[in-house]
Design brief:
about 30% helix; about 140 residues; 5 helices; alpha/beta
Length: about 140
C-alpha cells in the first residue's frame, strides 16, 4: 500500500521551504504526496476529500505554520480536523509543527485509537518549543 501524505503550509514563505524539502524526501521513498497552502487552497475541504478516498493506507498529515490553542491559522479548527481524521482506517501520523501543536491531541484522543495514531508536536499546549520536526526530517 502506498502511504498517503498531506503536507499543509502556513502563509509565511519560510514555512514552504521546509515543506518542499520534506515533500521531496517523501516522494523519493514512494509516498503519494499532496501539498496544500493555507489561504491559497481549500485546506479543510481538500483534506476531507483525500481522507474519504484513503481506505486503509497509512496516512501522514504534516502542518508547518502559525497556530492557536484551537487550530491552524485561517480558522482551521482542531475539532473539525479531528472529526475528519477519525475516518482514516489505517495508521495515522500527524506532525503538527505550530504554536500550541499539542492541543490537537485533546481532540484526537477521543476519536482515534492510540494503537494506530501518532502525533508529533514540538510545541506544547502552553506554546513551549522543543525544536523543529519537519526541518530536521
Amino acid at each position: 500500500m502506498t502511504p498517503i501524505c498531506v503536507l499543509v503550509v502556513g502563509t509565511e514563505k519560510r514555512f514552504g521551504n521546509d515543506i518542499q524539502e520534506f515533500k521531496n524526501y517523501l516522494s523519493s521513498i514512494g509516498c503519494d504526496v499532496t501539498v496544500l497552502t493555507i489561504g491559497k487552497d481549500r485546506v479543510t475541504r481538500s483534506v476531507r476529500h483525500i481522507v474519504s478516498a484513503t481506505g486503509a493506507q497509512p496516512f501522514l498529515l504534516a502542518y508547518k505554520g502559525h497556530g492557536s490553542p484551537l487550530g491552524w491559522e485561517g480558522g482551521h479548527l482542531y475539532l473539525s480536523l479531528a472529526f475528519t481524521l477519525r475516518k482514516i482506517q489505517g495508521d495515522l501520523v500527524v506532525i503538527n509543527e505550530t504554536c500550541y501543536g499539542h492541543s490537537l491531541i485533546k481532540y484526537l484522543r477521543f476519536l482515534r485509537s492510540a494503537c494506530n495514531t501518532c502525533v508529533i508536536a514540538p510545541f506544547d499546549s502552553k506554546d513551549k518549543s522543543y525544536g523543529g520536526s519537519i526541518r530536521d526530517a
